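Possible regression after last week's pipeline update?

I re-ran a chain I had predicted before the update to compare outputs. Posting the input and the new output here so someone can diff against the archived version. Not blocking, just want to make sure nothing changed silently.
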Amino acid sequence: MRPRLVVVSPTTAEVVRAAGGWLFDRVMAGWDVLVLVADPLNSRPLRILGAKGVDLEAALTSRVSGPRPHALAVDAGLYESDDRVQRLVVRSLDHGLTDVRLWGDDWTGGLDEDSGSVRHRLSVAARAFKAQALAATAAPAGSVDVTEVFRSGDLLPAPPSLVPTG
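New output (post-update):
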């Protein structure tokens, strides 16, 4: 069985912007990459990266779950705003999933932005494919950075709504 990465993002454009190069590099390393987004009809940018898009709401409300992923990446804003996404992250950490990453400006728990950061240096091919995927999202054109930065999930505090009381 190939290793599996599951990515959770509010939009296709956001996941391509924040993590598109890392996703492409995982696909080229033989990983299956599944992206849960609110706009799955715009799947062309994800296909350019070699990933598959699935409807976020359908995935979060489904009673059927697929194989447990080997890695999980989540938009920090979505983690902060959606209890179901918080539970997914906490459950992944509880099951010993070692590669849980968040991206975005909404760093959780007031932690220092550089604390627990994980940097992925994009391959030359990843930068080229990310640029094409960004163009397919109709996002403003710009240069593709050499690195993508994530927050390591092992530093995330449990969300207040999930902290046991008593």
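Follow-up from reviewer: compared with the archived run. The chain has one domain: 4-154. Marking as no regression found.
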